[in-house]
């Protein structure tokens, strides 16, 4: 622990004793105030609830509890009640039948001021209110419709070309696949708004004094630490682990950089006689608004800054806009790059499937001297089936994002009290042997032979969720993942470092901001196609 976050022991005891008694009273009051038929689950201990039951692998433990107690179980996490749904029927009850009541969002205690989230956030908007609706619509219109995706296509191709060039330069050396995907996807998103790369494949920050990769790694690391305050919200103000403070510090540093982008664009335009880059930042400057108004409008009409839109007449502060911009980057980059990594791991392990993907790409690209055009993606049925199979076995959000009950309601004969945290265990559903034949086998054919899709209508397969909180980035994510994989497979042969046998590749995962491969995947590229294509 660093010195500034150390608290003297007697002081801690003085604080903790009254809290301890409050928690005991609170626990017994909540437990005995009514005889509500909660969903079944292991008997909780006083005060700590089921925390000790969870162990180091929450996915496996909670899935085991579901096998023992049924598709809807409840656990007490410290002072907080949590319900887990682990079957298509239970998921449908939560995400369709009771979507209205159960689609509020649980806000992690290490995030910023909840009042700001209510006004500025989409992902962490506590309720699906008018403000949230407006953000989703704006976001969909500017980022995720077919038209918006088509407009971004040149940009995507440029970033993919940069990835291919980088990998060509690494022929014969091991590269970390998640990191390559992360850099490509991150730069694609930052170009939509700022027309800039913010990361290099190796050089961090590309020309800025701020190191973006380091920043996001730090945030991801902090996201892995279980926060005591999430189990005992009464401790939130104390920030005993210093997590809130550390996140706030990280955000303050990155805020300054984004503010600088606006100021610099103004100067550049003045210097270049009003020359435009045509991105979102330019559109706002074109209208001729003052900075303060731009900050507000950035929130109203930008595909990315719009995530901070507030229906209130208050002018937004830049730091709030930036907060949400980062929110979208986190939602979009970690999930997508981790999917690329899992897919490459499965294809490396299953060489015959990798070969079939390669053959399909070769068949569909008529002119082998062409770079891959994304218009052929819909024809790559087998590759798309591989992406679905990857998301079935390794969903980046294995419990979706935590929902919260707005009101008490009854689900499958049990009561879910107001404020309960709700999780849908899509990891368990994706591996359920009563739903999937040989569930642990990576077999894309199962998706070629059926019409199961991930658009939220089939509750056996929900990698993007369903209902009002379904991932709005789905079309962009699928396009990005498929395009990156097509390029990795078409342009390079891949092998494991140290002649490692692919059949021994360990495919265990760990839960963090996303569901990551436990050991990052390192692969060695061998170039197959001449770089002049790109
Ligand atoms: C393979 C990639 C991705 C997967 C598997 C994924 C999955 C998910 C899931 C499971 C949720 C939560 C659904 C719920 O709460 O019930 C979600 C929410 C969200 N995702 Fe994605 N996502 C991906 C990529 C993206 C991308 C590329 C973006 C944007 C650039 C994005 C933006 C969001 C946002 C803004 C939300 C919050 C929606 C809300 O609360 O209303 N995601 N995503």
UniProtKB/TrEMBL annotation:
Its cofactor is heme. The chain crosses the membrane at residues 7-29. Keywords: Heme, Iron, Membrane, Metal-binding, Monooxygenase, Oxidoreductase, Transmembrane, Transmembrane helix. Gene3D superfamilies: Cytochrome P450. Belongs to the cytochrome P450 family. Pfam families: p450. This is Cytochrome P450. The keyword GTP-binding does not apply. It comes from the Eukaryota. PANTHER family: CYTOCHROME P450, CYTOCHROME P450, FAMILY 76, SUBFAMILY C, POLYPEPTIDE 5-RELATED. InterPro entries: Cyt_P450 (IPR001128), Cyt_P450_CS (IPR017972), Cyt_P450_E_grp-I (IPR002401), Cyt_P450_sf (IPR036396). The keyword Transmembrane helix applies.
């Amino acid at each position: 622990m660093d010195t500034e976050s150390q608290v003297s022991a007697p002081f801690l005891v003085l604080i903790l004793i009254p809290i301890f008694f409050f928690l005991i009273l609170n626990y017994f009051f909540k437990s005995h105030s009514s005889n509500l038929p909660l969903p079944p689950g292991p008997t909780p201990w006083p005060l700590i609830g089921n925390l000790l039951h969870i162990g180091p692998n929450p996915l496996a433990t909670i899935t085991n509890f579901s096998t023992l107690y049924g598709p809807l179980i409840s656990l007490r996490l410290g002072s907080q009640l949590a319900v887990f749904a682990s079957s298509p029927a239970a998921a449908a009850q939560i995400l369709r039948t009771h979507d209205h009541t159960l689609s509020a969002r649980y806000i992690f205690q290490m995030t910023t001021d909840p009042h700001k989230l209510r006004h500025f956030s989409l992902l962490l908007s506590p309720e699906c209110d008018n403000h949230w609706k407006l953000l989703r619509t704006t976001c969909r219109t500017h980022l995720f419709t077919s038209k918006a995706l088509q407009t971004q296509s040149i940009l995507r191709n440029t970033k993919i070309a940069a990835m291919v060039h980088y990998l060509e330069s690494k022929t014969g050396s091991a590269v970390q696949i998640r990191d390559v995907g992360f850099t490509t996807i991150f730069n694609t998103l930052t170009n939509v708004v700022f027309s800039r790369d913010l990361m290099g494949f190796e050089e961090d920050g590309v020309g800025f004094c701020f190191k973006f990769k380091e920043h996001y790694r730090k945030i991801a690391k902090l996201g892995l630490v279980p926060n005591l305050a999430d189990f005992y919200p009464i401790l939130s103000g104390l920030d005993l682990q210093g997590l809130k403070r550390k996140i706030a510090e990280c955000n303050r540093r990155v805020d300054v950089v984004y503010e600088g982008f606006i100021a610099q664009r103004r100067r550049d335009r003045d210097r270049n006689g009003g020359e435009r880059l045509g991105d979102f930042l330019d559109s706002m400057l074109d209208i001729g608004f003052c900075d303060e108004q731009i900050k507000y409008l950035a929130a109203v009409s930008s595909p990315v800054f719009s995530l901070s839109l507030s229906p209130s007449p208050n002018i937004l502060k830049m730091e709030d806009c930036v907060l949400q911009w980062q929110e979208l980057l986190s939602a979009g980059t970690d999930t997508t790059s981790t999917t690329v990594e899992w897919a490459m791991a499965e294809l490396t392990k299953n060489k015959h499937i990798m070969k079939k993907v390669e053959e399909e790409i070769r068949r569909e690209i008529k002119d082998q001297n062409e770079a891959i055009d994304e218009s052929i993606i819909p024809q790559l049925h087998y590759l798309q089936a591989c992406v679905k199979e990857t998301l079935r076995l390794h969903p980046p959000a294995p419990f979706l994002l935590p929902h919260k009950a707005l009101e008490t309601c009854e689900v499958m004969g049990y009561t879910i009290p107001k404020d309960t945290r709700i999780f849908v265990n899509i990891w368990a559903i994706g591996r359920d042997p009563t739903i999937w034949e040989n569930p642990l086998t990576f077999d894309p054919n199962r998706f070629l032979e059926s019409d199961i899709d991930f658009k939220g209508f089939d509750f056996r397969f929900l990698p993007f969720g369903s209902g009002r909180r379904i991932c709005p980035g789905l079309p962009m994510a699928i396009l990005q993942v498929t395009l990156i994989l097509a390029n990795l497979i078409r342009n390079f042969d891949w092998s494991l470092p140290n002649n490692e046998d692919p059949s021994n590749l360990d495919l265990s995962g760990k839960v963090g901001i996303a569901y990551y491969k436990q050991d990052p995947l390192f692969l060695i590229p061998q170039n197959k196609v001449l770089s002049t294509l790109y």
